[in-house]
Amino acid sequence: xxxxxxxxxxxxxxxxVRKALQRLLRASDLDADxxxxxxxxxxxxxxxPLPDCLVLDLQMPGTxxxxxxxxxxxxxxxxxxxxxxGHDEPGMEARCxxxxxxxxxxxxxxxxxxxxxxxxxxxxxx
Length: 126
Hints:
19% strand; Rossmann fold
């Protein structure tokens, strides 16, 4: 049986962040799909394989990352989520983790921490 590479979806409204994360993930032997908005990601779900992990920007126009995370928890599908943000606010990390995020990382992102958070989200310890 051929082992497939884990698939990670990145949802971030900043094109430079999407491109940088896509390069990092692919260089780290992960498949990476990027989306400019929560709406783009939701529209892809019926047509693409479900990602093994979702890297989700918190602050986006329209539907925020936290809103998308809550919607996925409420209606499915269940996708392990790593929240990233450049606009940290008091209490936001606790709200994201309470809503089901596996990790909360502040920008600028450290590649090693992001990759470790993605790996932990995909393969949580028992």
